[in-house]
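Weekly structure sync, notes
Attendees: PL, DS, HV (note-taker this week)

Item 1: SPTN2 protein
DS walked through the input record. Source organism listed as Probosciger aterrimus. Sequence as pasted into the shared doc:
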Amino acid sequence: MLRDKFREFSRDTSSIGQERVDAVNGLADALIAAGHSENATVAEWKDGLNEAWADLLELIDTRSQMLAASYELHRFYHDARETLAQVQHKQKQLPEEVGRDLNTAEAMQRMHSAYEHDIQALSTQVRQVQEDAARLEKAYAGEKAADIRRHERAVSQAWAELRGSSQGRRRLLLDTVDKFRFLRAVRDLLLWMDGVRLQIEGQERPR
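Item 1 (cont.): predicted structure, written out as tokens:
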């Protein structure tokens, strides 16, 4: 990766360069201390060298910061797109069937609980995208800031839709299970009443 290569280059260059600059500074100091006839020229060259070295270090630092910022922005775009794709995938996985009887409805209810637990893991990724977008927006302006906002909004809207759909399905399954439980209770009670009626009708009538 370019950022890592430049970081390595920066570290090596700073280390090697500093050794060489220190060595030349040492030579210059020794010449000046020995009272060399060209002391003024040596001092001037020493100052020029140190100034050029400081400029180079600043250039390396600026380049490192630019690469780090660029890497962070590209990572945000990648994370936002990946999170959006996962949220949309989960939305498509949401079934519409609610079950034909109590057993299947209860089975679907259990499956939906597992599904909700599954999508809850996505909330961390969504929150990270939102936090990164808020931080990056402060560092950028104009079109880039608008693009960051656009990516974050797409993720947040898809997440809100998924949560809404999931909650709606949970309520629907709960209503379906309650309905089937009620129908089973009614059926059991009617069967019991039929049994009592048969018992009554089966008894001998008084003469």
